[in-house]
Amino acid sequence: RPIEAFAGSIQPGARWKFHFLDGTLGNWWNAEAEQKMLSIHRLEWNPWDWLYLSPWESVVYAKRLELSYLNPIGSYFMGQHTNGDLDNIAFGGEAAVTIRPYFRFYFSLFLDEIVLVPLSRLFTRPNNQFAWQAGLKGGSVAGERNLTAYPAVTNVYLSPHAAATTASPPWAAATTWVY
Question: What does pTM read for this prediction?
Fold first, then answer.
């Protein structure tokens, strides 16, 4: 699927980077093709040499002019409420702690179509979908990268809208289903 977009990055400080993209998913020249718009922004922050934090947010919406989604520094989640429309909002972030040259521990979280509720119900509410990954990247004492290993744990928690059973399908052995 082609993407036509306007993208950019700015670095307001030595330890800050901001990236954004606004574009279209699909072919503008084919009127019969489904047209969707995409906006995404990401902040990267290294407060110290050993710590990396990077929150991001994205939205996929119908082909129409939505000024709140075209603003690269505005919250898409808040823009959705301003527009009064439910679009596909996703957000998440990454964090990493690096102890050079020995290892780097990382964690990544993806939240899709989240309805904000108290934290005790956030990850058990039906139709709140999320995934996470955590891992450890190790190097040798000498700092040689040819001895690097990437053990990782990944989980995806889905809540299918049309689920009629609590049984997990056989192809989803590593997936936990939340109803």
Answer: 0.73
